[in-house]
Write a structure and sequence with these properties.
Layout (H helix, E strand, L loop, with lengths): L7 H11 L2 H6 L9 H19 L3 H7 L2 E3 L2 E3 L4 H10 L18 H14 L1 H20 L2 H13 L2 E6 L15 E4 L5 E11 L8 E8 L12 E6 L1 E3 L5 E4 L2 E6 L10 E14 L5 H6 L2 H29 L23 H36 L3 H36 L11 H9 L8 H15 L4 H17 L6 H27 L3 H35 L5 H18 L2 H9 L4 H4 L11
Parallel strand pairs: 3-6
Antiparallel strand pairs: 1-2, 4-5, 5-11, 6-7, 7-11, 8-9, 10-11
Helix pairs in contact: 1-11, 3-6, 6-7, 6-10, 6-11, 7-8, 10-11, 10-12, 10-13, 11-12, 11-17, 11-18, 12-13, 12-14, 12-17, 14-17, 15-16, 15-17, 16-17, 17-18, 17-19
The chain binds flavin-adenine dinucleotide.
């Protein structure tokens, strides 16, 4: 079973050479302590923790899974000890505010940490990941008393958190939520209902679990406008803020599922559980979604992580395993056959994984800078700044979340293919990556819902194409500057064509949607994927520009690293980017080909 190696060279290339994070951090209030030395030390230390502690639990966690006995959930062997090390290292509070015990470092550093942890062991990383979602919600919408009670133990990692939205009848359409919250004389609420698919709903890693729950007040308006948000702790905090009386919230069962088996996915029953309102009545969804853009970047990591992991393991295998001779003549004449890596078709698969992993990482690191500014706006109470950056991120996050998780799944699939039949056998771990990755296209909004959010809300409804115009202008300005460099000209010319085409497609869809309401849903997936391929092309061109410059003027590293960057950019432009054109054609095709069959004529069985 291979292990994970933190891709620190690539991370530092993006941080220091492509996106100039040292200057970015110097411009942030939270960046005062994020000096290059400290950032370097954090990434190296986190990499070691992921390689030595989390990666060895990846396969055993999958085999053992979680167990439920007498209402208590046990995580797989080694998880408790690994979590204790995580807490002792202060990792949970890395980007949390200092006033609640955190280290107050920029949000982006938390995302880089999450990338390494999630790649080494996604199931494990979900426990602290969900807690961070709960922490962010309480930080922004909780009362002072709630913050003082819940944030210090959550920041320390002594307590965990969850996000309880989904119910049996609804996941996407949260307007159908039925869980009830009855006001009590003491200002608390009695929460009653069933939530399903709740990640980290019950486990043995922390002393307490703070559930953040969507529920309805009596007489609340129907639909999404009648949903409020509540804190429902597993144990009610006592007067000293320690774990007190057991609350009426229990785990009814664990879901049996395709992957992420070491992550406890729970059915949670709330029976007259004591809850406390967070934020204003009936504005629960708005509160819950405040940090959704950062949470979705978090889920987009689950596209990059599997591509990286599957690539690392497939590359090792392709170097070792031998089969036949390369078509262009023997490459290893002393051996019985050439290794897989000499076959063009195997290289196609490996380079697809590499281009997705490195291109996707660049997309994440680009967005993470915007997230830092947005968080700073919130922390400083500068709502104008927070909103401006939230809008920029709002356009990019469905692209990142939807496109990268779909491509991560594809990359994991290619990894199995590189192993041939052995990829299908459990001991190699390749099939586990596929199983673990699929969920990323489903939770935090399915790909279809991300696509609707992008095209329907962000592009057509909210900005009438303005979001595309603004982003493509940025890309075009960059591309124009590269036209005079002959190594970069092919990328720049292609980018200029694509930015023009992206705007034309948007206008054509806008006009078509005025006549036919189904156009948005029919075109959304192709529009999302098209947007993803163009965004990744921009980020590959940015990496190529730095690599070309470093090759010419001498870089901090061996020239091979920069040549590999240019070669991968070329592969991306010539072999993956052409897919954008098939999405362009498909998105403009008439809705008739989807809608003409009556629902009852979709199959003729029996
Ligand atoms: C392992 C796991 C962990 C999870 N963790 C959590 C958690 O911690 N907390 C939590 O609250 N939830 C969690 N979920 C729930 C998850 O977020 C939902 O499953 C997800 O939002 C999709 O909802 P659904 O399953 O009800 O699908 P549905 O909403 O029924 O969707 C089914 C299909 O229809 C499509 N669709 C739905 N509506 C539309 C529309 N209007 N237009 C076009 N297409 C549409 C969807 O894209 C999808 O393809 C988890 C789920 C799983 C499996």
């Amino acid at each position: 079973m291979p292990t994970y190696k933190a891709p620190l060279r690539d991370m530092k290339f993006l941080l220091n050479e492509v996106f100039d994070y040292p200057r970015h951090y110097a411009s942030l209030a939270s960046g005062e302590n994020a000096t290059p030395d400290i950032v370097d030390a954090i990434l190296s230390e986190c990499g070691r923790f992921c390689e030595d502690v989390l990666s060895p639990l990846y396969q055993s966690g999958d085999e053992e899974g979680c167990k439920l006995e007498n209402g208590e959930v046990t995580t797989p062997k080694g998880f408790k000890e690994a979590y204790a090390q995580y807490v002792a290292g202060g990792w949970q509070g890395l980007s949390a505010p200092e006033e609640f015990g955190g280290q107050g470092l920029p949000a982006s550093l938390g995302l880089f940490k999450q990338e390494m942890m999630g790649t080494a062991n996604w199931s494990f990383s979900m426990y602290p990941g969900l807690s961070i979602g709960a922490m962010n919600t309480i930080f922004l919408h909780g009362s002072d008393e709630q913050k003082q009670t819940y944030l210090p133990p959550l920041t320390e990692g002594r307590w965990g958190g969850t996000m309880c939205l989904t119910e049996p009848q609804c996941g996407t359409d949260l307007g159908q939520v039925k869980t009830k919250a009855e006001p009590q004389a003491d200002g608390s609420y009695r929460v009653t209902g069933t939530k399903i698919f709740i990640s980290s709903g019950e486990h043995d890693l922390t002393d307490n679990i703070v559930h953040v729950v969507l529920a309805r007040l009596p007489d609340a308006p129907k639909g999404t406008r009648g949903i409020s948000l509540f804190i429902v702790p597993k144990f009610l905090p006592d007067d000293n803020g320690d774990v007190g009386q057991r609350n009426g919230v229990t785990c009814g069962s664990l879901e049996k599922k395709m992957g992420i088996k070491a992550s406890a996915t729970c059915v949670m029953n709330f029976d007259d559980a004591t809850g406390y309102l967070i934020g204003p009545e009936n504005q629960g969804l708005e509160c819950m979604f405040t940090f959704m853009n950062t949470a979705r970047i978090g889920t987009a990591i689950q596209g990059v992580g599997p591509a990286e992991l599957s690539y690392q393991w497939a590359l090792d295998y392709a170097r070792d395993r031998r089969s036949m001779r390369a078509l262009s003549g023997k490459k290893e004449p002393d051996q019985v056959a050439d290794s897989l890596i000499h076959h063009a078709d195997v290289r196609r698969m490996l380079l697809t994984q590499k281009a997705i992993a490195e291109g996707g990482r660049a997309m994440l690191y680009y967005a993470a800078r915007l997230a830092d500014h947005m968080v700073e706006g919130h922390e400083q109470g500068d709502s104008k700044k927070a909103e401006a950056y939230d809008d920029k991120l709002g356009f990019l996050t469905p692209i990142l979340k939807g496109f990268l998780t779909e491509l991560g799944y594809e990359a994991a699939n290619q990894g199995v293919q590189v192993f041939g039949g052995h990829g299908y056998i459990r001991e190699h771990g390749m099939e586990q990556i596929i199983r673990d990755t699929k969920i990323a296209t489903l939770y935090e909004g399915t790909t279809g819902i991300q696509a609707l959010d992008l095209l329907g809300r962000k592009v057509l409804m909210m900005t009438q194409g303005g979001a595309v115009r603004e982003f493509t202008l940025k890309i075009a300005n960059f591309a124009r500057k590269q036209l005079t460099d002959k190594r970069l000209r092919p990328f720049a010319v292609e980018l200029l064509k694509l930015t023009a085409q992206w705007n034309v497609l948007t206008v054509r869809l806008m006009l078509a949607a005025r006549k036919d309401r189904d156009v948005v849903s029919a075109a959304a997936h192709d529009f999302l994927m098209y947007s993803g391929y163009v965004t990744m092309a921009y980020l590959w061109a940015r990496q190529a520009a730095v690599a070309a410059d470093k090759l010419e003027h001498g870089g901090a590293d061996a020239a091979e690293f920069y040549r590999a960057k240019l070669a991968t950019a070329e592969f991306y432009y010539e072999r993956l980017l052409p897919r954008a054109q098939s999405h362009a054609t498909s998105m403009l095709s008439p809705t008739k080909n989807l809608m003409q069959l009556d629902a009852e004529h979709m199959a003729f069985l029996g």
